[in-house]
Specification:
Blueprint: H1 7-16, E1 18-22, H2 27-30, H3 36-39, H4 44-47, H5 61-71, E2 75-81, H6 107-117, E3 122-128, H7 147-163, E4 168-174, H8 178-181, H9 187-190, H10 197-207, E5 212-215, E6 228-231, E7 252-257, H11 274-286, E8 289-295, H12 305-321, E9 329-330, E10 339-344, E11 347-352, E12 359-362, E13 372-374, E14 379-380, E15 383-386, E16 389-393, E17 404-408
Parallel strand pairs: 1-2, 1-8, 2-3, 3-4, 4-5, 6-7, 7-8
Antiparallel strand pairs: 9-10, 10-11, 11-17, 12-16, 13-14, 13-17, 15-16
Helix pairs in contact: 5-6, 5-12, 7-10, 11-12
């Protein structure tokens, strides 16, 4: 039986609540998203021509970590290898890697060093299970390779990431779903092949016992997986079309983009407002979930100014309201169109996300509650009971434009 993450590792993950997702690779040069190789059917030899062009001289690990600190984020998850098969670190298992570009450096090692200097931020790795470049990934008898060749490569990379980059807080796997959705890649799976998760997870448990394992399979987590994930949707929703709406009794992580793409897309200017991003963060927390918010850096190694600005605005809100997010657990006061709640140590935090009127009415408030105040404002609010609900009125000048937080004690 595969071991689970340690209690220490799981508690840290649930307390962290907010992280930065980073999709960055050769596809950043093309600027049409991380799936461009597949979507535009770019042949491997043509795609490989991007290697000598990739030179992200603007990349600065300390600046990225400082941005995460400014945003109030507690961890990063960065693509070590995406579906295009290009490794963003100095792997010994492939020549198809960033250290064989003009850049020559290992950005994951630099990020690990930057995290080690800042004990408020931890590092996690995204690992693609599928690989459009590796000749053994797609089952072809004529290529002279067996599925075991790919499994050895995949497991070997996980071992490298566990061994060479210090403390890792999370492993984020992606790409198991082709057996359901991409029929041209199903040949081996139809024959009964697998990624041998028990062995992969065993490597992680042996070398990084505090790291949580998240597998983005859009289904019930398997033994050894610590987190139920939701992609581009809050728990219980399925607007993206591939999330299960069933919520299992385990930690949750919601991953979302700031605009519409994970990897940078030059034509995507549909950036979500800071208010919406804060609302997504607290709605995730109210359901017991972390919020992993993505940035897609440029091929030069910089994070878009629009994204950096929004992240810092979220961080400014968290500086005054973080008590209602970090270390909290799922709210016990029912959510409504206007509000969600979190709780910690017997204190309930009501997040008012929109105002339909000057007063809010809360159902299901524990009878022991005897005071209401604005978080960090030392402002006691008048309350009264109406029709079995707790009514709280908040004057317009006391409201926060992103999320007004009321503390019930």
């Amino acid at each position: 039986m595969v071991k689970q993450v340690t209690k220490k590792g799981l508690q840290w993950f649930q307390d962290a609540r907010f992280g930065m997702f980073i999709h960055w690779g050769l596809y950043s040069l093309i600027g049409r998203g991380e799936w461009v190789m597949h979507n535009e059917k770019i042949p491997v030899p043509e795609y490989e021509k991007l290697l000598p062009q990739f030179n992200p001289v603007q990349f600065n690990a300390d600046e990225w970590i400082q941005l995460a600190v400014d945003a109030g984020q507690k961890y990063l998850v960065i693509t070590s290898r995406h579906h295009d098969g290009f490794s963003m670190y100095d792997t010994a298992l492939s020549d198809y890697k960033i250290t064989n570009t003009p850049f020559q450096r290992d950005p994951l090692a630099e990020l690990a060093d930057a995290c080690a200097k800042n004990d408020g931020i931890k590092l996690g790795f995204y690992v693609s299970l599928l690989d459009w470049h590796h000749p053994a990934y797609r089952f072809r008898e004529e290529n002279g390779l067996a599925w075991d060749d790919y499994i050895g490569f995949l497991h070997g990379q996980v071992h490298e990431l566990c061994s060479d980059y210090g403390e890792i807080c999370a492993f984020w796997f992606d790409g198991d779903w082709p057996r359901q959705s991409l029929s041209e890649e199903n040949a081996y799976f139809a024959a009964g092949g697998s990624f041998e998760y028990e062995k992969i997870y065993g490597i992680i448990r042996d070398l990084q016992p505090d790291a949580v394992i998240h597998n983005n399979r859009h289904d019930q987590p398997l033994p050894g997986e610590d987190v139920q994930g939701f992609e581009q949707d809050l728990p219980g929703d399925n607007t993206a079309g591939f999330n299960t709406t069933k919520i299992y009794d385990m930690p949750i992580e919601v991953c979302m983009t700031i605009n519409d793409n994970w990897g940078i897309h030059f034509d995507d200017h549909n950036h979500k407002s800071t208010q919406r991003l804060v609302n997504n963060l607290v709605r995730s927390a109210s359901m017991g979930g972390n919020y992993l918010l993505n940035v897609g850096p440029t091929a030069q190694g910089s994070i878009l100014p629009e994204h950096a600005r929004r992240l810092r605005q979220i961080g400014a809100w968290l500086k005054n309201h973080g008590e209602s997010v970090y270390g909290t657990r799922q709210g016990v006061i029912p959510s409504s169109r206007q509000t969600v709640s979190t709780h910690k140590d017997g204190v309930h935090y009501i997040h008012i996300l929109q105002y339909l009127s000057d007063c809010i009415r809360l159902e299901g408030v524990p009878p022991s509650i005897n005071s209401a105040e604005l978080l960090n404002e030392a402002k006691t609010l008048a309350t009264q009971s109406k029709d079995g609900k707790l009514e709280i009125c908040i004057a317009p000048e006391l409201r926060n434009p992103y999320d007004t937080v009321v503390v019930l004690r």
